[in-house]
Amino acid sequence: PIKTILDCDPGSDDAVAVMLAALSPAIDLLGITVVNGNRILPKTLENALRVVQFLGQDIPVFAGAETALVSGLIKSRKPDLPRVTRNDSHGDYLQLPEATIKPQPVRAAQWLVETLMASDGDISIAAVGPLTNIALALRLEPKIESKIKQLVIMGGGVAGSNASASAEFNFYADPESAKIVLDTTIPTMILPLDATWRACITLDQCTDLRAIGTPWADYTADLVELRVRGLQVNDLSAHNSELRHTPGTVSSTLLYRYENDMAPVHDAMAVAYLIDPAVVTEYIEANVDIDIAGGIADGRLVVDLHNTKKGAAPINANVAVNSDGQRFYELISRTFAADGAR
Ligand code: BDR
Ligand code: CA
């Protein structure tokens, strides 16, 4: 199994990612580190503990960063942005019994450093929230850079955005951390909105999930339905592939079709990719960077699609631009058919 650490901010799609990582026989989930993101840390931490307790597995959970690295210092950013603007695809607390299990006594960044430094370089990380914990760990001990086998990040958008006109939530919530993490030689796969929106789960598939009859399949159906309803509240007509584009250009491959009976489950795709890389069907090897100027492109993932830097800047990430939604769904349904015993 792939030794994996999951960094997350549950969050409804984060919860599906946790269940997928915990239940997949292909993954050895070493621990879950939790970050401020979809909600404040006390809530995301409680939610992570609720999911672990629900699974009945002995997976250590670590509290991470309470705030973004420097966001409060950038005048153009609102202090509590962007949590307060989130739609209701998450809710404050997951609808699971209150956690009686406790987080570990060590904080996330410290544990990441200790665990990675003691490893043989065989640990992968799936990071599906703002990247504050990973950036803090890199600042504490830069040597972890060469110890991470693979980093799979859910974040950013090539054509897409969702927290501002420019940026996706995870990068918008802590642009400096995203920049610190991407400015490394860690083998990195970014799963941006362009890839995750192409693997939406539908209400019909929720019915099929319920038919499986395990608690995790049932609960995933609840979460996806919550997400579908959350999206219906917004006017997402702009997400339709009616967007004008010139056939044959790069941008035409970056558009996706959305109908109002479906929702993306972004974070689960990062775990799915570790288990089965074929869920990503197209990706770009590129130099990528993050805008941190605090202006209209704050937190924007900048992908040098046309290699304009001509080798002057490193190819520092693979960026997924297409995915196999059917394969993604089948992986989830197959994994959640398991009885939970590992
Ligand atoms: C990301 O933002 C969060 O709301 C989700 O959990 C996901 O990690 C998608 O932009
Ligand atoms: Ca998340």
Characteristic key phrases:
Inosine-uridine nucleoside N-ribohydrolase; 342 residues; binds beta-D-ribofuranose; 33% helix; glycosidase; I/U_nuclsd_hydro_CS; binds calcium ion; 17% strand; alpha/beta; IUNH; 11 helices
Structure overview:
It is a single chain. With 342 residues, the protein is an alpha/beta fold. 33% of the residues lie in helices and 17% in strands. It contains 11 helices and 12 strands. It has helices at residues 12-23, 41-55, 108-117, 132-140, 169-173, 175-182, 193-196, 203-212, 215-233, 266-275, 325-336, and strands at residues 2-8, 27-34, 61-63, 123-127, 148-154, 188-191, 201-202, 262-263, 280-286, 288-290, 301-303, 317-323. The strands form 3 sheets. The protein has an 8-stranded mixed β-sheet, with helices on both faces. Helix 1 (12-23) links the parallel strand 1 (2-8) and strand 2. It is globular. Mean pLDDT is 90; it is low at 237-253. The structure holds beta-D-ribofuranose and calcium ion. Residues 11, 13-14, 38, 128-129, 154, 162, 168-170, 266-267 line the site of beta-D-ribofuranose (BDR).
Task: Give the topology.
Blueprint: E1 2-8, H1 12-23, E2 27-34, H2 41-55, E3 61-63, H3 108-117, E4 123-127, H4 132-140, E5 148-154, H5 169-173, H6 175-182, E6 188-191, H7 193-196, E7 201-202, H8 203-212, H9 215-233, E8 262-263, H10 266-275, E9 280-286, E10 288-290, E11 301-303, E12 317-323, H11 325-336
Parallel strand pairs: 1-2, 1-4, 2-3, 4-5, 5-6, 6-12
Antiparallel strand pairs: 7-8, 9-12, 10-11
Helix pairs in contact: 1-2, 1-9, 1-10, 3-4, 4-6, 8-9
The structure holds beta-D-ribofuranose and calcium ion.
Organism: Brooklawnia cerclae
Protein name: Inosine-uridine nucleoside N-ribohydrolase
Domain Inosine/uridine-preferring nucleoside hydrolase: 5-330
